[in-house]
Amino acid sequence: MSQPVSRKGAVGLSRPAAIAVVAGVMSLGALLGRRNAPDPSHPNIRRWYKRLDKPAFTPPDPVFGAVWPIVESGLAIGGYRLLRQRPSEGRNLGVALWLLNTCMIGGWTELFFRKRELGASALASGAMIATGAGYVAAAAKVDRPAAALGLPFVAWLGFATLLAEQVWQRNPDPNASVS
Questions:
Q1: Cα–Cα–Cα angle for 52, 128, 142, nearest 5°?
Q2: What is the rounded distance in angstroms from the CA atom of residue 81 to the CA atom of residue 86?
Q3: In b/e form, how buried is each residue of 68-90, taking b as 16+ CB within 10 angstroms?
Q4: Residues of the chain by 3-state class (helix, strand, coil), percent to 5
Q5: pLDDT, tens digit, for every residue of 118-139?
Q6: Residue 28: alpha-carbon gap to chain centroid
Q7: Is the whole model's pTM more than 0.85, yes or no?
Q8: 3-state SS, residue 115
């Protein structure tokens, strides 16, 4: 597959520009996710989340804290690699799907933790599997390492969707456990 860019002719973004775009996009997603995190800085969200009936296969909280930075780092590096590629329909589709998926991560936390829309968040998680797979497929046509870096995202989403669906089924009234 193609390498990041040559120095002549139409090329992708420069290294500093690609880094700036990735840093900006990922930072916005992280801020939104942080705003909705069920940690001690958000006691109401934390209390609500702790009281939900969750399936036995729910990982301990530190696992989520360890997995998401790895998954998002893969997306960040993949996005950088795509932004450095020559502009083309395939590259632009990959970048668009990368942007969509990074935005959907923060949007999911808003739906689940802040708005407590368990059904909508389970459906959104399922939609993210499709858009994540689309990102991987589009990226594979332009930059195979970028595509490979997106695979953990899609795999984690498969598990997260199953978990979200189970939480939704077990908690038909998610606000009933709130004091």
A1: 150
A2: 10
A3: beebbebbbebbbbbbbbeeeeb
A4: 70, 0, 30
A5: 999 999 999 999 999 999 999 9
A6: 12
A7: yes
A8: coil
